[in-house]
Specification:
Distance between the termini of chain A: 52 Å
Strand content of chain A: over 45%
Number of strands of chain A: 10
Order of helices and strands of chain A: HEEEEHEEEEEE
Helix content of chain A: 10-25%
Number of strands of chain B: 4
Oligomer: heterodimer
CATH superfamily of chain A: Immunoglobulins
Largest interface: A-B, 18 and 18 residues
Radius of gyration of chain A: 24 Å
CATH architecture of chain A: Sandwich
Number of helices of chain A: 2
Strand order of the largest sheet of chain B: 2-1-3-4
Mean pLDDT of chain B: 84
Number of domains of chain A: 1
Number of domains of chain B: 2
Shape of chain A: elongated
Largest sheet of chain A: 10 strands, mixed
Helix content of chain B: 55-70%
Low-confidence stretches of chain B: none
Mean pLDDT of chain A: 88
CATH topology of chain A: Immunoglobulin-like
Radius of gyration of chain B: 21 Å
Distance between the termini of chain B: 73 Å
Structural class of chain A: alpha+beta
Chain lengths: 167, 159
């Protein structure tokens, strides 16, 4: 007598058990990868130095949809920071969902492809600008290569970095 | 992300304990109110776990953690029989030879109406016709009706 609705022992049953074991192993592997922080959120730092100015940028290296994002740019000058202009890639600000810039720039302009932010001279030896916001909830997964330039009159400083946007 | 996995693990065991404390009755014999409460608990749990991380990877992390813990618990129950009562629960006998066990009923918060309902669902008219009724860990009843020769002859009923 045959029972077509019952699950029969045999090679097919064994294959299913193997598939299940592989699935569980993949889930464990995924959690291990997640716990190492490889899937974000993660930050990185890039620096550049000129004859009189140093620039450090701490930026998100891996971000995910809906998470808070923050990037800081700090520049230092021995004789005190004068009026400064930062050139930022607007695609980066859009990908990170940047909504606030602290301290607020005294002027914002665009040269067509780049956002230019002007900051007041302070006379202090270092100046830090913080960009903060939240990555859009339906952010497009992408590898974003960008650069940020400090348009120093003596010598412009540029840092290049990569930010991965994950779903 | 370690926090997400840790919070999910904590929530998993907290839910397991809470559901065990609620008893078997809640699992299978839910009233509309109890159903709403369980849904609400699920919603609150999801809020706490997801928090601000609405990303796909965040959701997958929580699902994967829950799935692995479920597999781990069932494996632990299989591997160590002594853990089974704590993990899977134990069945309890609620009726023996037509006599409901009042102590078990009190402990499981079962009313005589619940037993009548379970009997009716199995096509049994009278609790006296039940040889054995077991409340399973899943909250369902397993009923064994008495065979004709088991039923004591009480003589003809006068109506």
């Amino acid at each position: 007598m045959s029972y077509p609705t019952t699950e029969v022992e045999g090679p097919r049953h064994e294959r299913r058990a193997t598939v299940r074991r592989v699935g569980i192993a993949l889930l464990v592997l995924f959690l291990v990868v997640v716990m190492t922080g490889a899937l974000g959120p993660r930050t990185a730092q890039v620096s550049a130095a000129g004859p009189v100015t140093e620039l450090d940028v701490t930026h998100p290296a891996v971000v995910r949809s809906g998470l808070a994002s923050e990037m800081t740019a700090t520049w230092r000058q021995e004789e005190g920071v004068g009026a400064t202009r930062l050139s930022v890639d607007p695609a980066l600000l859009a990908a990170l969902g940047i909504e606030r810039i602290e301290p607020a720039p005294r002027g914002e302009t665009s040269d067509g492809t780049r956002l230019l932010l002007d900051f007041e001279p302070t006379g202090a030896q270092s100046y830090t600008v913080t960009f903060s916001g939240r990555v859009p909830t339906r952010a497009t997964p992408q590898k974003l290569q960008w650069e940020l330039t400090l348009l120093d009159p003596a010598a412009p400083l540029t840092v290049e970095a990569t930010t991965w946007v994950l779903p | 992300m370690i926090e997400t996995v840790a919070t999910t693990t904590l929530m998993f065991f907290a839910l397991a304990v809470v559901l065990r404390l609620m008893g078997k009755r809640e699992l299978a014999q839910m009233s509309a109110f109890e159903l709403v409460i369980l849904f609400l608990m699920g919603d609150i749990t999801a809020e706490a776990l997801v928090s601000e991380d609405t990303s796909f990877i965040g959701a997958l992390t929580i699902v994967a953690t829950f799935a692995l813990l479920t597999v781990l618990l069932s494996w632990a129950a299989f591997r160590w029989p002594k853990l089974r009562p704590a993990i899977d629960g134990v069945p309890c006998i609620v009726i023996t030879d037509g006599e409901p066990d009042r102590n078990v009923m009190r402990r499981e918060r079962l009313t005589i109406e619940d037993l009548n309902e379970a009997a009716r669902a199995q096509g049994i008219r009278d609790l006296a016709d039940i040889e054995l009724a077991v409340l399973e860990p899943s909250g369902k009843f397993s009923l064994f009706a008495r065979t004709t020769q088991d039923v004591p002859d009480e003589g003809p009923r006068v109506i």
